[in-house]
Structure formats: structure tokens, C-alpha cells
Amino acid sequence: MESKCWGKRTSIRQDSTHETCLLELKKGYECSWHYHEQKYNLFYVISGCVSIITEQFDNEKSEVILFEGNCFMVKPGLKRQLPKAKALGFLRHYL
After folding, report:
1. Interval 7-46: pLDDT, tens
2. CA-based, 20 to 30 A from 58: which of 2, 75, 78, 94?
3. What is the pTM of this model?
4. What is the CATH number of domain 2-94?
């Protein structure tokens, strides 16, 4: 388990090409803007809800709000942020 300012990250399974993690988000905290050069992220909400903002290469931003049972894929190179959680959200994070 790895503590972050926004919550906890627990690795569930990892091999040379994939990693599955459980992210536990604290209400009112956020994950900073970042991107991965080669990794895809698939977010799956186990409980609660979370917002994911992405920024295109032309600086256009879009937001998706995920609820329990929803999933969302972020491609490599696409900037993303998990803004201040509106509710406690648990995400399964695949790389």
C-alpha cells in the first residue's frame, strides 16, 4: 500500500505489461494533472463516484463523471486529473 495526499494506492496484481491497483480517494482531495507516455488507464468505480478530467493536445478539456459500475479508458499521452472528489470513490486502476 502506498499513501498519497488524495488517498491510498494498493497494488493487487502486477506483471511485465499490466498492473491492477485499488485507489481509495479521500473526499475533497484531488490527483494532480499527469499523463503516461505508454500506459493505458482503465478506471472502474467499485463504489461512490468520481470525476475524471482529460485535456486534449489542443488544450480542450472534457469531464466524465463515473458512478458505481461505470468504467472509463484514458489513452497514453492524454493528460488527466481526478479533481476534488465529490464523494468517497473506490477505483480499480488497470495499466
Report:
1. 888 888 888 777 788 888 888 888 889 888 888 888 888 8
2. 94
3. 0.78
4. 2.60.120.10
